Amino acid sequence: MQTRVLIGVFSFLTFAILYVLIRDYAQAIHSYSIPNVEPYQLEKVEDNATIKIPKELSWLNQLSAKGGVSYFYPASELRVKLLFGKNLKKDDTETFRVSVGIIDDYQFFCINQVLSANNIDYSYYKVGESIWLVVATDDEKYLRSVLEELKHYEIHYSLSKS
């Protein structure tokens, strides 16, 4: 019994609120006036006449008189460092191959930083997913000590002479 009364009261309140909302909406719609819109009319030019523009105002002349631009568009850069036979020292420089296996971008960055910080020239190539470094140095012990720093970054390597 009480449930039916509550449902009836809520239904009545719902219809009352709905009636007030619809009435206010209808009044708002009728008070809105549609603006008067006319199509845009272009100025009529007679006899297809041409207008003479002074040369100092011509954009084409201004463009050709400009120098180079002082800005550059952003572009991706790829830096490749190769070791060629003519660039290697011929006396007692040895070439080593270092396999570092499959590494992520951060580990590759760490390898680049460690070798660059120790002034070791190298190049790299990829076989499948594995990265190989070609390193030219005259001191194998120094190279091994530098490569030991890679273990701090969890980079495992194998060194072999070429």
Task: Describe what this molecule looks like in 3D.
The chain has 162 residues and is an alpha+beta fold. Among the domains are: 1-28; 85-161, ACT domain (Alpha-Beta Plaits, 2-Layer Sandwich). Helix content is 36%, strand content 16%. The chain is built from four helices and four strands. The chain has helices at 2-31, 59-65, 105-117, 140-148, and strands at residues 94-101, 122-127, 130-137, 158-161. The protein has a four-stranded antiparallel sheet. The longest helix is centred in the first third of the chain and has 30 residues, at 2-31. The mean pLDDT is 80.
Features:
162 residues; alpha+beta; Alpha-Beta Plaits; four-stranded antiparallel beta sheet; 4 helices; 4 strands
Number of strands: 4
Summarize the helix and strand pattern as letters: HHEHEEHE
Judging by the overall fold, what is the CATH architecture of the domain at 85-161?
2-Layer Sandwich
Q: Classify the oligomer.
A: single chain
CATH superfamily of the domain at 85-161: ACT domain
* Helical stretch tally: 4
Judging from the principal axes of the Cα atoms, what is the shape? flat
CATH fold-level assignment of the domain at 85-161: Alpha-Beta Plaits
Q: What is the mean pLDDT? A: 80
